[in-house]
Amino acid sequence: MRELDHLIDTDDPGIRLVRDWASAKGANASSILPPDQALRGQTLLRLQVTTRSILGALVHDTGGILIQGGRLRLLGSSTARSLLACNEAAGGMRTGAPDDFVIVADDILGGLFALNGGRFGSDSLGNVFYLAADQLAWTNLDVGYSDFVAWCLTGDLGSLYERFTALEVFKLPPPPLGKVYSFYPFLWTREATERPPDARLIDADEGVRLRLEMAGFEAG
């Protein structure tokens, strides 16, 4: 296991590239949150990645990134909500052993994005998978984490969210990083297509745990 000073790259840190993507012409509106000093070190040690990597840069040098006002949230090391706490709530990242998946992002509707460490099969190791708010099956996005972050910051998010724009909550200012909407009827049911579902805010990490359970996919 590598110590923290061996994981911090001061010569070519990945955060420079992240900031370039975020400030590129035509990039999606985003806010880079400040990291918590203690959490960022703990998370880097648990993941055993360097800050030259984009994942290392996100967890060490940001408290997460809010995209489109916070509708999509890339997890980092904020005291309000962190990648470490989110995965611990779901049963992962507790022992220091390699995890077979890591939740790396979510959206306000309950959609989840996970990095495949083996749970989704060996052929797609390192790819990001998406559990949409209206689905119970994961979709391989066929990109690694770095390309996923670049797409979140600069790509067309309409392909993911166009079908949700009729939801009333999609028209409201996004909730805080630590909250997510829970719907009833659930968005993947036929009933949700027949009448507008009721929505309430719940703790975001609890929302992650519930989504994983409902999809029959628990960590740990």
Fold and architecture overview:
The chain is an alpha+beta fold and 220 residues long. Helices cover 29% and strands 21% of the residues. It has one domain (4-214). Helix 2 (37-47) packs antiparallel against helix 3 and helix 4 packs across helix 8 (204-214). The longest helix is centred in the first third of the chain and has 11 residues, at 37-47. The mean pLDDT is 92.
List keywords for this structure.
220 residues; alpha+beta; 7-stranded antiparallel β-sheet; 29% helix
Compose a concise summary of this entry.
This protein has 220 residues and is α+β, with helices and mostly antiparallel strands.
Chart the SSEs and their pairings.
Layout: H1 15-23, E1 30-32, H2 37-47, H3 54-61, E2 64-67, E3 72-75, H4 83-89, E4 101-107, E5 112-116, E6 127-131, E7 139-144, H5 145-154, H6 158-161, E8 179-184, H7 191-194, E9 198-203, H8 204-214
Antiparallel strand pairs: 1-2, 2-3, 3-4, 4-5, 5-6, 6-7, 8-9
Strand portion: 15-25%
Approximate shape: globular
Order of helices and strands: HEHHEEHEEEEHHEHEH
Uncertain regions: pLDDT < 50 for 5+ in a row?
Answer: none
